[in-house]
C-alpha cells in the first residue's frame, strides 16, 4: 500500500518510515499537518498514518479534513502516537480515524493492523468496480433503448394511422408499448387495421409484436384478405418468438364502398360496433386464440362480416383499456366504456374515453399499456374512397370495351380444354393480349378451383406427395367422367374506369361452394405443394373476392398503369 | 407439355416445352424419375425456355422434385425463366427454394 506518514519528530519519522518500508509499503513522509494535506492531495495514499501533535495542523484537524475531502470513499486513517490516553483515542476515532496505535509497537502488530485495512480496501474496491460496471451497463442499456424506440417508431409506420377514417389513442406504461396499432390500404382501397397486444410491457413486449408488422403491411399492400394475413401472422409468431409467447391481435378490413367490415379477433376484448346513438354490440361472436398458440393446421382464420354504414363506428381496444385501475385498484371496466360511448357524440368518442380513463386513473400509475382504435363508417374525406364520383377521364378511352360469357355444362367440361380456349379468345384483344401470362394463371386457378372443389368436391390436401397427386388426378378423371350435372360460367369484361382500363373476370359454378376463407388462406410462398393457387391470383389482381358460399369468384385486373390509383366497383 | 432429358458431366437438364399445368404431371414425373436414375448425377436443371405458362400445380410438382432430389442429395436449379413463368416463380417466392439462373 501507499502510506502517508505524518510525524514531526525526525527520529520517530526515520524509524517508522524504515519499519513500514520493510513491511513492503511505499511511504511518503512529511513533518507537519499543512504539508501533510498537500501531500495527501498529491499522492492519494491508501492509508494515512499520523501523530497527534504536529506543527501547522494537528492530527485531529488533519483527519477531519482528509475525510471531508475523501467524501463518500472510505479513507483509512491510523493514529500512531506515544500518548496512551482514552480521551485522545476516543477523539481520534470520532473525527474519522480507523485505529489508534500506541508506541512503542512491534513490527508484527503494525503489520497486522495494516493487513486488516488492506483487506477492507480490497473489498471496497471490488464493490466500487461493480458499481462502475453497473453504471456503464445502465448507460449502454439506456442508449440501446433509445435506438430501439427510434427503430420501432419507424417500423410501425405510424403515419399510416393518419387515415381520415381512423382515430386512435395509445398509452404506454414503459418507454415501449406492447400495444401496437397499424393501418394500411389495400390496392382496392379497403382499409386494414391492426391492434396487437404483446405480453407484458417494455422492450420485450414491443419486440414480441414486431414479427406481425411486416406481414400486415406487405400482404395488405398486395391485396390479401385478412384471413390470409392473420394466418401468416400466426405463422410468424410461431417462427420468431420463443415458445409460449403469444400476441393478442385484432385485424379488421373495412370496405367503405360496399359498406361492410370483416373482422378477426384473437385474444383481445371483443371489438364493438357502435350505432350513431352509441349503442354497442359485439363485432365478434367467435373467440379465437391469440396468435402463436395454434400451429397452422389448427389455426382458425375464420372472419366475421357486418354491415358498416356511414353512421357506424368500430371500436377495437386492448385489455389495458378496461383494466386501467384507479387508486383503489378498481378497473375501468366494460360498463364504463359502454356508458361513455352512449353518452358522447361519435366525433367526440375518442376524447371522451381518454378523459374518462384519465379521470378514473387519477393518481394511480399506469401498470399496463392501453390502446383504443376507432374507425368510422365513412371517412371525412369521402373523395378518397369514392373514385367513381371523381372527375371522369378527359381523354377518350384508348382501349375498347368488350365482354363475353361462356357457360359450360358437364358434357362440355369433360370434352374441352377450357383455359387455352379462353386464352385464345382473349388474345384477340389488344391490352389483354400482353397479359396472357397472368390471365393464364388467373383463369386456370379459378376454373380448376370451380371444377375440382365446386363440382367434383375433391380435396387438395391429398396432393401432398407424388403418389397423392397421381391419386388426385385419377380421382378427378373418374369423377369428371360421371359428372351428371353442374355448370361453370366464365365471364370476362374489359371496361374503363377512373382513367384506366380494367378487366373483370367472374367464375361461377353451380356447386355448393367451398370454404374459401380456409382454403384461400395459404400464402403464395407456402411450402406445401398445394393451396398456392388462389394466393397467386390474389397477388396478381387488384382485387379478388368470393361470394359468401364460395361458388362465385370475382377478379379485377388492372390493364393500364394508371388503373392502379383508383379501383372500380366489383 | 413436352419433356426432353439430357445428361452430361453429372448434370441433367429437363427441358420443358408448352403449358406446364396439372395435365403435365405424368410426363414431368417420368422425366424426374429418369433423371434421378442417371449415374454420377449431382445437379438437376429444369429449363423453362420453351414453357409458355405455369400454374400452381406445376409449382407443387417442382416442390416435389426438390424434395426427391434433396433426399437423394442432389441440387435443383431453374433456368431460363422469362415473362409469365418468371412472374409466377417470383410470386411464389421460389427464389428462396431453388437456385434460379
Report what the structure shows.
The complex is a heterodimer of chains A (570) and B (101). With 570 residues, chain A is an alpha+beta fold. Chain A is built from 17 helices and 20 strands. In chain A, the strands form 4 sheets. Chain A has a 5-stranded parallel β-sheet, sandwiched between helices. In chain A, strands 6-15-14-11-12 form a 5-stranded antiparallel β-sheet. A 5-stranded antiparallel β-sheet of chain A has the order 7-8-9-10-13, with helices on one face. In chain A, strand 7 and strand 8 form a beta hairpin. In chain A, helix 10 crosses helix 11, helix 13 runs antiparallel to helix 14 and helix 14 runs antiparallel to helix 17. The radius of gyration of chain A is 40 Å and the shape is elongated. By secondary structure, chain B is an alpha/beta fold. Chain B has one domain: 2-Layer Sandwich (Transcription Regulator spoIIAA), CATH 3.30.750. Chain B has a 5-stranded mixed β-sheet with strand order 1-2-3-4-5. In chain B, helix 1 runs parallel beside helix 2. The relative contact order of chain B is 0.19. The interface between A and B is medium-sized, with 27 and 30 residues.
